[in-house]
Structures are given as C-alpha cells and as structure tokens.
Protein: Cold shock domain-containing protein
Organism: Streptomyces reniochalinae
Amino acid sequence: MTADRPQRPASADVPRFGHVVDRRPHGGGIHGRASSYIVQDEEDGRHYTFDYTHIVTEGFRTLHTGERVRFHIAPADTWRAEFVIRLNQPSPEAFYE
C-alpha cells in the first residue's frame, strides 16, 4: 500500500465499485467447482475477497476476471466483500467458453 492511500477501509454501508482481479477455484459447492474471488476497489485500490454466496444475481453465481461490480464491505470482516452485483452482463455464450 502506498503512503497516499487511506489506511482504513471505507464504511461498510457505502456501496463500492471495482473490478474482479482474480478467481481461485477452491473445490467447494455442490459440484466441487465453487470459486473465491478478489475484487479491487476502484477508488482506493484495496483488495477484498468473496465467494459465490455473496454474488447477488439470478441464475449462475459466477463472475469472470475483469468484470466490473458494485459491492459492500462486510462490517465484521473489513477484508471481505458482500452483496456483490455484476454491472456489465456478459452474453450467455461467455459461460460456455
């Protein structure tokens, strides 16, 4: 972290915006293919983690690296994102690549 960035995370009740910068399969979920994700906050550059249970969507709860999302910071775990909403919807074909 650089000296010009704030040392404390933003408030949990304020929506944040960022991009998914990493997706890590961890073998969870009903079929053993669930992933954990890392989102980078656009404003302060901090990284937050979340898993598929925190993605708010209908259908598949999955995201791709590079997708832009809106999220909240978990009040108890300031390193965790929750209520993650995809802002740019991919075409259905993207899920079959």
Notes: Residues 16-89 form a domain with the OB fold (Dihydrolipoamide Acetyltransferase, E2P) fold (CATH 2.40.50.140). The chain has a mean pLDDT of 82.
